Predict the 3D structure of the following.
Amino acid sequence: MSSNSFAYNEQSGGGEATELGQEATSTISPSGAFGLFSSDLKKNEDLKQMLESNKDSAKLDAMKRIVGMIAKGKNASELFPAVVKNVASKNIEIKKLVYVYLVRYAEEQQDLALLSISTFQRALKDPNQLIRASALRVLSSIRVPIIVPIMMLAIKEAAADLSPYVRKNAAHAIQKLYSLDPEQKEMLIEVIEKLLKDKSILVAGSVVMAFEEVCPDRIDLIHKNYRKLCNLLVDVEEWGQVVIIHMLTRYARTQFVSPWREDDGLEDNEKSFYDSDDEQKEKTDKRKKPYTMDPDHRLLIRNTKPLLQSRNAAVVMAVAQLYWHISPKSEAGIISKSLVRLLRSNREVQYIVLQNIATMSIQRKGMFEPYLKSFYVRSTDPTMIKTLKLEILTNLANEANISTLLREFQTYVKSQDKQFAAATIQTIGRCATNISEVTDTCLSGLVCLLSNRDEIVVAESVVVIKKLLQMQPAQHGEIIKHMAKLLDSITVPVARASILWLIGENCERVPKIAPDVLRKMAKSFTSEDDLVKLQILNLGAKLYLTNSKQTKLLTQYILNLGKYDQNYDIRDRTRFIRQLIVPNEKSGALSKYAKKIFLAQKPAPLLESPFKDRDHFQLGTLSHTLNAKAAGYLELSNWPEVAPDPSVRNVEVIDLAKEWTPAGKAKNENPTKKFYSESEEEEDSSDSSSDSGSESGSESGEEDEEGDSSEDSSEDSSSEPESESGHQSDTENRRAAKRNSKTKGKGDSKDGKKENEKSKTSDSSNAESSSVEESSSDSESESESESESESRKVTKEKEKKAKQDRNRLATDASLLDLDDFNPVSTPVALPTPALSPSLIADLEGLNLSTSSSVISENIGMISSKGNKSSPSKECAKKGQPRSAAEGRPHS
Amino acid sequence: MIHSLFLINSSGDIFLEKHWKSVVSRSVCDYFFEAQERATEAENVPPVIPTPHHYLLSVYRHKIFFVAVIQTEVPPLFVIEFLHRVVDTFQDYFGVCSEPVIKDNVVVVYEVLEEMLDNGFPLATESNILKELIKPPTILRTVVNTITGSTNVGDQLPTGQLSVVPWRRTGVKYTNNEAYFDVVEEIDAIIDKSGSTITAEIQGVIDACVKLTGMPDLTLSFMNPRLLDDVSFHPCVRFKRWESERILSFIPPDGNFRLLSYHVSAQNLVAIPVYVKHNISFRDSTSLGRFEITVGPKQTMGKTIEGVIVTSQMPKGVLNMSLSPSQGTHTFDPVTKMLSWDVGKINPQKLPSLKGTVSLQAGASRPDENPTINLQFKIQQLAISGLFTPHKPGLFWTLQGSWN
């Protein structure tokens, strides 16, 4: 890891640089004279000199300063010639910093950037994979169109590189080249196709990313890799998981038929749970064709489920949206718990998650009802979180919980955050309209708020009451009178306008007050807000039509004022109203109907959730958050009526694919037997922890050897199980296990849901664990054992084929490991047993055990002896004070 | 994916910029500043801001805005989660993540950012791997480097990158093998003014510091895993084993990491170990009011309650408060109207209280709502969930109560 070997190469490195830079030096050196003009220029001069010195330390200092300049956004482009010479520096840190510089400025200085290309081309052939990879990274990042063919060539080569890390970088380079020159699309798709076949977990995420960016419509490229991607998913790094899940969601929507039964409708299909069997039967009969889920569809749903437990919020959200969009509605319930968990995270995460929950809660209330209390607002939440929570609470409100909610809302209204208080009032209004039982309660509550001291609260209440009254215009004369009185005190324009509108609309119900209000408003007309002025005009017109005796003059006065108003809207409205209501010879047929026009029954406004229309965006996307299509948004297609041919996903060499699939975490899974036996062993010997010091001493010696030999041995152990690695017996165990897989698998799935599909596909964990050694060694061998591995693969394949015949049946479906799956059908959370404090003391502690030597061929390491004496071991013993396990240093 | 990153301090200066694709002018941040102005408070700045050609996704931590510039559709959580990871990495590297520290270590920051993203897509985010590629700066290393001329940059691909345990360094050696596990449980409750609990939930995390040689494979079993309502794991934990046996089996990363976080939904039955009595009254005629708060323990099972901090946001009309605490110190900020009282330990024999008068602004009407009171406290060696036996140091709860 140390780069000492390079560190002393100053001489040669420096020499090279000077050679390269001779030309530049000669022209630059006399430029000290310019120093007078700007100190900045001068500073750059000494940077140049430092870069041209023979000392690496000086160069490094200079580069560091330059990077500092770049970071601050200062222009350092004039140093380009001086910097680019150092691209071949032997000092790795200088080199890296030069790369940073190049990527930043090459686009501006294309000609000079070309000087560096040959260095990268050379580095692309370097035996060190890190150097090959970083050369490819920089080469593809410098965005100089002339080198497109070189890039193309480099990408093609890198895509076939033996190191998965280099191939990963190739996948990234594809996107860069595509954005630089979209003409290359066809060629790049070929490379993508090739990389999609890659079995390395390292590559999977990146190549799918490239796929999404370059050719998201070429869904046909996915078919053959679909099952592999599903199976790899758990082990891909977090970021790759997000991208793959999003892609697979789209894929599933084009390839499988809808699992949503029609009777699910919009609401949750809770109903069908409680339906009696007979009814259920009837329904099925009616449907004629009972729906059976494509096993591949099931595979995806099942393999993503554990990812709900990921620590990465983006992964959890991705799985949640996958369940939302493609799983049967009865199974989507499991995501709510995980999403609610994310609400404990940072405010930014909360914000996005709450937005998505808001959309979901409109369509399927049942999903989040059990978590109602998680959405209660905390006084410390930022306003934007508070309003989102309110939104969700409103969506979840129903007859059963509304009374608790209203009590909660009452507290919110008193909040010091006035914006939030106003939003709460809106919310109460929405609840009142949605749930007819509480309309009256809400209304009286809102009327109480009219006497609140805070004007914003009052104004908001007025607006909401207006909407509510409009919905049931019956006997609310009292409230209207009350509000008319408010006109004297309230100043918020929206509220004033609302009151005026309400009086105008109900002018026949309050015949005494209405004209008086108009009189007052006529007085203050000129000083009102535009919004209010319009409503005054409306009120005038309505009164003129119903009660012209008292208000004729007033209205005409107002119309005259309006005629000369500054705002053209008001002038227009005035003209329009005058023509309509004041009869004159020119007035047409319309004025006969003026009364009908002005006092028509107006439909009540629908108080809707602002999240109502977001559901056409895929959840978890930027477009959904913005409620607008973002650039590059990919539509989620509707389910096809008839499923496309599922056989396209069949992979001929299915066995092979399986064997070569690094199944990652599953891979680490040792046969349980082993774990148990080990831990027992350990408990027996738990007292021996005192030797740890001495043992660890000897270990470290072993370690060294191991480090060297691990790769070799792991290769051996996997490709030729006969080789004498320590774990051979284990390996064989596992092979045996695999052979037995069929029977065992059946036993596993005894608890029994979905028996039907499973009988042949029963065992997965076994299959996976069997693939374990192969795959892990695969990644290792690919990385290091360049030369041999190819040939070995071939022979291995042959072996596999032979074996395949034997258990054809089992393997055929073995990619669909279904055993451990049980579809969670209830969206309702089971109440966890709560505990009384007295119990706590009785409850047991945590039991920590280190299975010291477990490590395993799986990871291709023989480090098993490495840590026989881990300190916490003794805590593994039950009954010992647990305090030892936690927090205190040991040994 | 992520196009560029700008770091903006609280006074609105862009003090670092990094681009992974073509350079995006820093003028794009003007849209951000606009939004910031509109939001008044830093925490109300929307995390996603659309602009005509870009989208700005930001997180706010340690008084720094991390603003990522996006051009095309991308899951917003992807970016947000990544930005948080960047902050965590900085913290891991430099101990703290603050403007001066980032400025001092700008080269390392740049190198790290370069490794974390390629073309805007995360490349290496595991701190174990990053630390092999770019070593964190220490004084010793700086000295050594100046003498020997070696660098902070690794020249070999960290083997973890290629293995199936990318989070772990290889070749780890310790003379003292040790592992620490800290269990921290937080109880989060809302309590109404009559003292009844509206919601209460327990959130716990297990933070580990593992310093073990080689490739240790650990298992951790719970005596009562049923209690865990919902868990999320570090990627090192094997999902399948958990699903089937409820055992945590994992190869740990080297150093500090968060093993898992869990949730125990205890509904209303959590016994909150403290109570607060408060009394605020205003006399109508004068602009003075009485104020009194008492904090007391209940059901602590003999443990002392420590680190008690009471904060309360007073109504706007409050001009000043003259209070005298029976113990601890208190402050009142007349600008933000925030009262905070650092109580310290609670002595059950002599309950701490804070008494005094509140003076209102002249002419201001009597506040109609009672202020909410937040309470934080710690209890060592007690786990409320009952998941663990109560013998562990480093265990504390935070209770957030609001009495309305």
